[in-house]
């Protein structure tokens, strides 16, 4: 996994502290495109690698959250499938949403990661101790991120973040052994 080699010490230090990993949806968990059927139903495509990464974070004691400005039934379905308890849709102020989660979970900002791709994600990224931009994020987002994935949103970027957090916390070997 090339994206886990030669990581800066400050990135590893930030990722090692994470107890809550929060993710934007459109452009982060998906490729950002909105699909509508002829009948007006919205569909979304999620990457299976991202899903397993999120499940592995949870299995290793890290809370996972979804924070989206939009409201989408496919997001609720995917979150339910992955047993994600912290699902916040219709959040126009993602920073405040993250702040309230931190308070409810009795965590400090440096214990949170926020992964995003576009301007509405910036306030939450600024609050989080570990701000991550996906590869195809808006340039203003990448400028303020602590780390950027090599893959784009909806194309395995979330899995990279999950793997990095587990790696930084010294859990990669146990994860590999889990699958033997």
From TrEMBL:
Broad enzyme group: hydrolase
Cofactor entry: Mg(2+)
Stated name of the protein: 3-deoxy-D-manno-octulosonate 8-phosphate phosphatase KdsC
E.C. numbers: 3.1.3.45
Keywords: Hydrolase, Lipopolysaccharide biosynthesis, Magnesium, Metal-binding
SUPFAM superfamilies in the cross-refs: HAD-like
Subunit comment: Homotetramer.
InterPro entries linked: CMP-NeuNAc_synthase (IPR050793), HAD-like_sf (IPR036412), HAD-SF_hydro_IIIA (IPR006549), HAD_sf (IPR023214), KdsC_fam (IPR010023)
């Amino acid at each position: 996994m090339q994206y886990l080699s030669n990581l800066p010490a400050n990135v590893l230090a930030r990722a090692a502290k994470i107890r809550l990993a929060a993710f934007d949806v459109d452009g982060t968990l998906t490729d950002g495109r909105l699909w509508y059927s002829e009948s007006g139903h919205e569909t979304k495509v999620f990457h299976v690698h991202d899903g397993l990464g999120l499940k592995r974070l949870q299995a290793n004691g890290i809370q996972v959250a979804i924070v989206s400005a939009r409201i989408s039934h496919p997001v609720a379905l995917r979150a339910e499938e992955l047993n994600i308890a912290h699902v916040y849709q219709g959040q126009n102020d993602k920073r405040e949403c993250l702040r309230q989660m931190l308070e409810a979970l009795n965590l400090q900002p440096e214990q949170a990661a926020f992964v995003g791709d576009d301007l509405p994600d910036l306030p939450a990224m600024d609050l989080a101790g570990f701000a991550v931009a996906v590869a195809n994020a808006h340039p203003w987002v990448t400028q303020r991120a602590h780390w950027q994935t090599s893959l784009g949103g909806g194309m395995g970027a979330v899995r990279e973040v999950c793997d990095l957090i587990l790696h930084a916390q010294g859990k990669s070997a146990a994860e590999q052994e889990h699958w033997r």
